[in-house]
Design a protein that fits this description.
about 260 residues, alpha/beta, 2-enoyl-CoA Hydratase, Chain A, domain 1, Lyase 2-enoyl-coa Hydratase, Chain  A, domain 2, 6-stranded mixed beta sheet, 4-stranded mixed beta sheet, 11 helices, 10 strands, globular, binds coenzyme A
Length: about 260
């Protein structure tokens, strides 16, 4: 499948999705949102793909937000639907069952930061700028930004970023846990690729178990979260990969996980 606004590459069990509208700083118009939805569906169903990396084309931006030109003409009802389209994409990324790494190569603003926050891991270039600048446009975040930012970094950081509209640099983003890794721009792709390939060699069902536990647990009481963890832990003992992982450890050899 070819896309108008995305570049897709499969390499070493890693699916790379590159949003490809560099002349518009990879702004998310409706078509790009729909294509992302389809690309994530397709890569999540592809057994050859164990990890997904999402990034932006060009040297300047991951994604500089929802497409302001397209958005400016929307009616209130159309804007609500546009918000839902974006929110549903973010949910589908969170629930795709495979680790998704956002490789933040530049501006991640508005919808761009919201997209990055739907990913499991955020790796930023030291030159990246991240923020929720919607208030500068008389708007608020519409693709889940107010909610995910609060859950990831706490209410204080979410209020600061969403109320000031001011972006923060990657070092500050690292200090508030908005990103968990940072590299110089020239090493960003290499280091992100290494992380992705490392995770692609791990047991896919265990990775999925971790993703599920963290996703359910984040919204549940401790009791419910702990119970879900125990159920998922038990389920791992029904997998071939668990046998392979423990046998390989005891036999002092590398494990080869089949995802079964
Ligand atoms: N939607 C639509 N187009 C966008 C865009 C967006 N969110 N962000 C950037 N672009 C376009 C610009 O209109 C420009 O297009 P043009 O060359 O056809 O005029 C092109 O991308 C380059 O952007 P430009 O503003 O010239 O780059 P810059 O380096 O001077 O500034 C930013 C970079 C990111 C600071 C600036 O583009 C910006 O503030 N973008 C909007 C960020 C935002 O508010 N996002 C939230 C949207 S809800």
């Amino acid at each position: 499948m070819t896309y108008a606004n995305l570049l897709i590459e499969l390499k070493d069990a890693v699916g790379w999705i590159r949003i490809n509208r560099p002349d518009k700083l990879n702004a998310l118009n409706r078509k790009t949102l729909q294509e992302l939805h389809e690309a994530f569906r397709s890569l999540s169903e592809n057994p050859q793909v164990r990890v997904i990396v999402l990034t932006g084309a060009g040297p300047k931006a991951f994604v500089a937000g929802a497409d302001i030109a397209e958005m400016s003409g929307l009616s209130a009802i159309e804007a609500r639907d546009f918000s839902k389209l974006g929110q549903n994409l973010m949910l589908s990324i969170e629930q795709c069952g495979k680790p998704v790494i956002a490789m933040i190569n530049g501006f991640a603003l508005g919808g761009g930061l919201e997209l990055a926050m739907a990913c499991a891991i955020r790796v930023a270039a030291s030159t990246a700028k991240l923020g929720q600048p919607e208030v500068n446009l008389g708007l608020i975040p519409g693709f889940g930004g107010s909610q995910r930012l609060m859950r990831l970094c706490g209410k204080a950081v979410a209020l600061d970023l969403c109320l000031s509209g001011q972006p923060i640099d990657a070092a500050r983003a690292l200090s508030v846990n908005l990103v968990t890794r940072m590299h110089s721009p020239d090493l960003l792709e290499e280091e992100t690729g290494k992380l992705a390939v490392h995770m692609a060699a791990l047991a896919p069902l265990a990775l999925r178990g971790v993703l599920d536990c963290l996703r359910y647990g984040a919204e549940a009481s401790l009791d419910v979260g702990l119970d879900y963890e125990s159920q998922t832990f038990g389920l791992m003992f029904a997998t071939e990969d668990m046998r392979e992982g423990t046998d390989a450890f005891l036999q002092r050899r590398p494990a080869a996980f089949a995802g079964k």
